[in-house]
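A.,

Following up on our hallway conversation. Structure tokens first:
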């Protein structure tokens, strides 16, 4: 893990394709800004940088062109990790060190669950994602793949966007949520209800963090 001052707050949204990670990253950022949060950085992965754009291009090619083999999984894993290290160094860490709130759609957990579903082991995934910063709050949006895929409505499906693969990804997200204490939210509901639940959870965690910070400053 990279060194980080005890300031700022880092929220990550995770979930299968079409689960609402982009929607809720945007919504919670707007809500925080309107609630008077000093500065909120809204971001996502893959990033808009060079490596991120390369990843997006490869995802559009689908899985079939290159075949779904272990070499492909390794290439995906390393590209996502490289994009992430750059993201942390250039954007996430500087913002957190300035005390800002960072809200990010997809992060380390995406790499772990997607690439282990592709056949890589968790240990390898954790190792190549070592040079990152840990989020303060990970929210996993849970939804059945068939509903998420209906919501996503693509002209052409990207790599990973099929029911069988996403079923495995969803199960792994749930398993890891239990193990790691991540917050699991049912995204298969009216958008307003999901949004309200998210706001409650974010507020609770922000208050706790703020309390700890105030206590430490007193000492
Ligand atoms: N609770 C909801 N009810 C109905 N539609 C929703 C809900 N949440 C999100 N949507 C819609 O579902 C679609 C997919 O959501 P979104 O783009 O946020 O998903 P995502 O997780 O970012 O997916 P991806 O990045 O894989 O495209 C969007 O059109 C969004 O408006
Ligand atoms: Mg999205």
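Then the amino acids I'd put at each of the 219 positions:
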């Amino acid at each position: 893990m990279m060194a980080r001052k005890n300031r700022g707050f880092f929220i990550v949204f995770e979930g299968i394709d079409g689960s609402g990670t982009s929607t809720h990253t945007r919504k919670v950022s707007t809500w925080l800004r309107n609630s008077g949060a000093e500065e909120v950085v809204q971001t996502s992965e893959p990033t808009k940088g060079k490596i991120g754009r390369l990843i997006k291009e490869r995802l559009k090619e689908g899985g079939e062109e290159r075949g779904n083999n272990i070499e492909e999984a390794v290439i995906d894993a390393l590209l996502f990790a490289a994009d992430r290290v750059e993201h942390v160094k250039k954007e996430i860490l500087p913002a957190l060190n300035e005390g800002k709130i960072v809200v990010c759609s997809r992060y380390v957990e995406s790499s772990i669950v997607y690439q282990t579903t592709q056949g890589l082991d968790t240990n390898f995934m954790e190792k190549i994602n070592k040079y990152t910063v840990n989020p303060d709050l990970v929210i996993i949006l849970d939804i059945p793949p068939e509903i998420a895929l209906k919501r996503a409505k693509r002209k052409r499906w990207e790599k990973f966007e099929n029911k069988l693969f996403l079923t495995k990804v969803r199960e792994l997200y749930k398993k890891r949520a239990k193990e790691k204490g991540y917050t699991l939210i049912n995204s298969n509901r009216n958008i307003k209800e999901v949004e309200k639940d998210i706001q409650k959870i974010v507020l609770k965690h922000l208050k706790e963090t703020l309390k700890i910070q105030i206590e430490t400053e007193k000492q």
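Helices lie at 21-34, 50-60, 70-97, 108-117, 122-128, 145-152, 163-180, 191-218. Curious whether your intuition agrees with the design.

B.
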